[in-house]
Amino acid sequence: TEKDFDIYEISKSDNNTFKLLSKGDTFGVFQLESAGMRKYIKELKPTSISDIAAMIALYRPGPMEHIDRFIRSKYGKEKISYPHETLKDILAETYGIIVYQDQVLKIAQAFGGYTLGEADILRKAMGKKIQEVMQAEKSRFISGSIEKGFDEKLSNEVFELIEPFAGYAFNKAHSVSYAMIAYWTAYFKANYKIEYFTALLNSSINNTDKISVCVNELRKTELQILKPNINTSNVNFEIISNDKGRVITYGLSSLKNVGETSLSKIILEREKNGDFESLSDFCKRVDSSWINKKILESLVKSGSFDEFGDRGGLLDSIERILIQINSITKLRNSNQSTMFDLFGEEVETPVNFIEIHETSTDNSQKMFWEQEVMGVSFTENPNHKKMMRIKQINEEIIVSLQQIETVDINRQHTFIAEVKSYEKRTSRKGSEFMIVKLELVDGSIDLMVWQNKLSEVDIWVHSPIAKIKGKINNRNGENSIWYDSAEIFSFEDQSNLQNNLKSQTPIITKEEYKPKMKKENSPIEEITNGNINEIREIIITLDTQKHSSNKHLMDDITRILLDNEGNIPVSIVVKNNSEKIKLNLPFANVNTSKSFEEKLDSIVGLQNVFYKH
Mind listing the domains of the chain with CATH numbers? Predict the structure, then answer.
């Protein structure tokens, strides 16, 4: 940031700021980040701080039914009207809608003949809703209005208009103050994005839930955040420059069970004497008072020690690592020397007795540990690639939040999602329902299961992946799925492929394709060394009766296609009895080679591969 930066001197009409607000990109923006407020601010597309102030006053705690009217009036989609021309000067800035307490006071003064002091007493009486006091003030308001020349009917209408607002509407100064802070935070996010996200992360350093939300929001932008690393991360989230530009390093003090005091000493040692080159180097340089089992476990589980070995092997060796650290610390504090010190400073004290088992922790386990200590995962989810593959096979299947934003919410959809958690609740009317947390490839969404469907849940809710049918419900700008049916889903089950093909077109007749056949006594090269440019498509035929027993077939086919990326399109024909369905694979254009041909033939059989010319 600039050396002489003054928050009070920033432009109040910054184009980047209002663009950000108009897109509803208000995560981390004061007062504007709830789902409902995000929806309305996106519709309002504010062009001034006054617009923001009015929206804050209307949304919290004002009468929300007036928000749509306010937005329509701003853009001339609804004619602005006033109860009486006398009130035009008071209500013009808010398009004829009472928004602020100040307007109530001014209406009582202009219409009912109150002084501003008397009008404030009226406001307080309305807020307390004491019936006798209200009735007395109403009589006074009407009589004052008649004295000023207004008729009794209009006086009653105006009193009934101001009554709901007086007790809970914000005063204008309060709303404008909030709007100014909202504008400043939006300004920083729009113009200093990486600095702002770093500040947001540090403001939630002790709350893994908030950090998780913030990291997921950050990933929707062009910004990058690095996974924890004992040699690059610091106590807090910080900005560094590397070959990818400016990036955010993960704040290690946000990890569960890792205290700032101990961590600061480890980081200070690294800054004074250089990176930790190995696990042995780490053991020799840290003090046993800085680290304990819980701290070490969290650092390993987060991936901070990945350059020293596999996480599973390191976790298995935790006790031995701590023993080594304690031994070296005691030796250092006793001022005694080992026999190796006799050879001079260049000879290092060996720690070979710490045997790290050679393990290979799978991604699922790494993700579980990361979620445990960070609330967020940096390891690639193996299911996400498979879910995206499903989407490529059939675009009707929803696997991401991004898709939800683009589909028709009035009809039923099919979702493939990870089942993360579930919770039973009871409504105000006493009926039970369940909220199931689903994980899509770019974030999570709630699945609402109402009482009439609860009996079906046990069939699928304990499975890691589910195929769900339901409708999208949008309430105050926040989406959820309303459950209709679901079943356990397995990526290996070939029947899932057939279930997803209903929208595909029937196959063209076999006569239009030239089968790839080996000539007698001729090498494979003769088949593939023709003019590749003449091949328009490769067609693989799968018979459900013959191939259904091989549950890994689609994985094997997909792997070989992705390993031979090129320009020739590939499609799969699924034969189910007399029915044939053609499935285009837009993600799997290939180039042919001898090795490719042999592998594909061995997987599906030579007679099931065709060239289209």
Answer: 7-179 (no CATH), 204-341 (1.10.150), 382-496 (2.40.50.140), 537-612 (no CATH)
